[in-house]
Amino acid sequence: MKKYATKNIRNLALVGHGGSGKTTLAEAMLFITGAITRFGKVDEGNTTTDYDPEEIRRKFSINTSLAPCEWNNHKINVVDTPGYADFIGEVYSALSAVDIAAIVVDAVSGLEVQTERVWAIADEFNLAKMVIINRMDKEHASFDETLKVIQEVYSDKVTPLQLPVGSQANFKGVVDVLKQKAYITADGKTSIEGVPADMADAVASAREALIERIAESDDVLMEKYLEEGELSEKEIMDGLKAAIASGQVIPVTCTAAFTAVGVQGLLDAIVDFLPSPIDRGAIKGIDSKSDQEIEIKPSESEPLAAYVFKTVADPYVGKLSYFRVFSGNLKANSTVFDSSQG
Fold first, then answer.
1. Using CA atoms, how far apart are residues 188 and 257, in angstroms rounded to an integer?
2. Which one in 133, 231, 267, 316 has a CA-CA gap of 20 to 30 Å to 26?
3. 6: helix, coil or strand?
């Protein structure tokens, strides 16, 4: 198994209202990264993360599923979660084990009840967030209207990192407003191009708004921005990473998962800007001996601290537990102490 440096790992959960396209988005991410060679469909019952017979029959997610993939030498641990209220416990367990809540919003239906609920849970766990406005290829889809509603509820710290190229049946790609490059998809293949001429003003405006949010997140950057009116590219990129990790900026991207439009741009954004476990920093825990609160630092040199967030009964291998290692190392045949058992 390939080993990844902690700085090159991204742990994120796809959360959102039922029907917003989380499972299809996970499938698209796996397909684009080469983790799978066949793009499964929910309606056909052959997606990677909806493998349970009941999920296949009902055609929606019931369980939390893991979908690891690799992109640009980074390991992305994607956790696909159910979107219906009956299975909210699965969302809690997923968000307890990740560093990033990727909140998937339907571009047609907009902000829905379960979206707001999972957003609140992400806040409970103090997670960095990203908004993915999905299903941009559907009739009546609107990036602008959906973004407007989200900003009205959660403030303008929700800021576009990418803008759509086209909409509904004409949705064909996205533009990264910081890197000022377009990801255009045609016939299932994505190419990187310059910003379309008719989007130049919109991209410039979105870029300026995002840079202002980045500057506002850091006193040193704000002072320089006010004095000089601009920031260096390194300051912008590093500032955005820090602002996302601290929750002061919530970047917005857009996709059409069913056709994988925008997914390559999404993957680039995940590895370029979203926090690794190191960027997230220390988390709070309880010392099993003293019952005192302690900080658990994301370092291999620290004592082992791992959290079992899901246990399932597999018909082939028996009892199977999924866990997140927050510090230290865990190897095969290791003996560990279960703090929950005293």
1. 12
2. 316
3. helix
Cα–Cα dist 23/213, whole Å:
31
| Phi, psi torsion values for 77, nearest 5 degrees | -90, 100
Rounded CA separation 128/157 (Å): 12
Query: Structure tokens of 77?
Result: 């641990």
Q: Which pLDDT score is estimated for 342?
A: 58
Main-chain dihedrals φ then ψ at residue 335, nearest 5 degrees:
-105, 125
Domains and CATH numbers, the chain: 6-280 (3.40.50.300), 292-341 (2.40.30.10)
| DSSP letter for each residue of 108-131 | TTBS-HHHHHHHHHHHHTT-EEEE
Residue 269 to residue 246: CA distance in whole angstroms: 17
Classify residue 190 as exposed, middle or buried by CB count within 10 Å of its CB (0-12, 13-18, 19+): buried
Element (H, E) at 307: strand 305-314
CA distance 200 to 198: 6
- The residue type of 176 is D
The number of residues in the chain equals 342
**CA-angle at 177, arms to 7 and 233, nearest 5°:** 60
pLDDT block averages, 10 residues each, the chain of length 342: 91 97 98 97 94 88 95 98 95 97 98 97 98 98 98 96 98 98 95 97 98 96 94 97 98 98 99 97 85 91 91 85 92 82 64
| Sequence-ordered list of residues with C-beta below 8 angstroms from that of 327, at least 6 positions apart, any chain | 296, 297, 298, 299, 300, 302, 303, 304, 305
